[in-house]
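Need residues for this backbone.
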């Protein structure tokens, strides 16, 4: 997020109270900004069914419903958790002075009202709803790593614990005015570290701990590539709200974020398809969909800081880099079923670091390496390292706890039958 946005978050956190028509400084709701943020919030919510289709098409047909359910039910779970406690941990003022997590000011959405905070032009409750959609999609990304083999009850407990103990604290570090990475000057416009690096590295840990899928002669190939492409299209569409909405207003910064989002996605699509063609001699449709998502991931932290030219560079590199990461994953035989680490982990880390290089005052007030502030790269490295280290350790502990309580993996006979029938008693196709 840019400094203007982050200052707004600070004001929202410190000054929001329900029931009045204007903030103490006389600022009032701007209908244009509010309308845009309502649309942006809905666009990000649309990414959940988009992700469900994207992931659903990539699994075997006997597991498509279970895979879709992870995204759909996950939205419901996190929506409740966010209102109860998640938003407060992420954005309430830190009562401890550590910069690690927020207090209980907004527990149960207390003090989250319809009034614009000081310096704000949108209702505080709308800001909270927009952030809810980020919180919902982040653990849903991880589900691609354990697709086709995780107990549903274990998925539920894992999602709740990960959202509260991993996502919300990292969001506070980076986006709250008293978060320690915010104070350090880390730049993350829309979630390169908070969303993608955290979920991508967590996915790798889950895949390592849960183990490889049972094959028994099955062809481990996508069962419905058109479904995957449709999902990727919905993700691309929803990502305009994800990135441009992070400007928190309808203006030039949002317009730039929208443009660079589309540009990076397009560039990464081209390079992923080209890399796959040079490697395998085929023009992969599924690869085009994955390439688009890789570009969207990589531009996310930079979308409020770079020009169209910078986004082209980010997209072109991300497509080839993330494709190479899938090859590495195959070589080391980690069954990250839907390549969450390769796309979101690698793409998110690369995008965060590229932000430190390519951020320019032509777009925002924060310079990176190319504008004469080389130390910004070091700050980005610290943010990435802290996010990755915490996500890895916390996810390892959460998986071990859930496994000890419920067992993390379905019985082998259920896995062979398929989770659609074994867990849900339904089939996607008759």
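Answer:
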């Amino acid at each position: 997020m840019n400094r203007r946005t982050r200052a707004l978050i600070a004001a929202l956190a410190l000054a929001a109270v329900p029931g009045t028509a204007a903030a103490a400084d006389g600022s009032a709701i701007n209908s244009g900004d509010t309308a845009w943020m309502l649309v942006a919030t809905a666009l990000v919510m649309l990414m959940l069914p988009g992700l469900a289709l994207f992931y659903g098409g990539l699994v075997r047909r006997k597991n498509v419903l279970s895979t879709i359910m992870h995204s759909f039910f996950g939205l419901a779970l996190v929506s409740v958790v966010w209102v109860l406690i998640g938003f407060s941990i992420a954005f309430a003022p830190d009562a401890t002075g550590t910069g690690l997590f927020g207090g209980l000011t907004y527990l149960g959405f207390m003090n989250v009202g319809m009034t614009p905070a000081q310096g704000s032009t949108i209702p505080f409750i709308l800001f909270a709803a927009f952030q809810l959609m980020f919180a919902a999609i982040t653990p849903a990304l991880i589900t691609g790593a354990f697709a086709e083999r995780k107990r549903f009850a274990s998925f539920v407990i894992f999602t709740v614990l990960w959202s509260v103990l991993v996502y919300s604290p990292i969001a506070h570090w980076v986006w709250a005015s008293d978060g320690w990475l915010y104070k350090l000057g880390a730049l993350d416009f829309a979630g390169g570290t908070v969303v993608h690096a955290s979920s991508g590295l967590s996915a790798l840990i889950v895949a390592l701990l849960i183990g490889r899928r049972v094959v028994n002669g099955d062809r481990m190939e996508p069962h419905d590539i058109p479904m995957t492409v449709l999902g990727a299209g919905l993700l691309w569409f929803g990502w305009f709200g994800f990135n441009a909405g992070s400007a928190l207003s309808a203006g030039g910064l949002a317009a730039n974020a929208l443009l660079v989002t589309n540009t990076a996605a397009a560039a990464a699509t081209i390079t992923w398809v080209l890399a796959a063609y040079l490697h395998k001699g085929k023009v992969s449709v599924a690869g085009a969909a994955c390439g688009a998502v890789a570009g969207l991931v990589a531009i996310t932290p930079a979308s409020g800081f770079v020009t169209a030219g910078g986004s082209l560079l980010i997209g072109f590199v991300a497509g080839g880099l993330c494709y190479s990461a899938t090859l590495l994953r195959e070589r080391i035989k980690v069954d990250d079923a839907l390549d969450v680490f390769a796309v979101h982990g690698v793409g998110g880390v690369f995008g965060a670091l590229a932000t430190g290089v390519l951020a320019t005052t032509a777009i925002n007030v924060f310079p990176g390496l190319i504008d004469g502030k080389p130390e910004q790269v070091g700050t980005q490295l610290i943010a990435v390292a802290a996010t990755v280290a915490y996500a890895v350790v916390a996810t390892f502990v959460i998986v071990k706890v859930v496994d000890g309580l419920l067992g993390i993996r379905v019985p082998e006979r259920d896995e062979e039958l398929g989770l659609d029938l074994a867990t849900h008693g339904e089939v996607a196709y008759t």
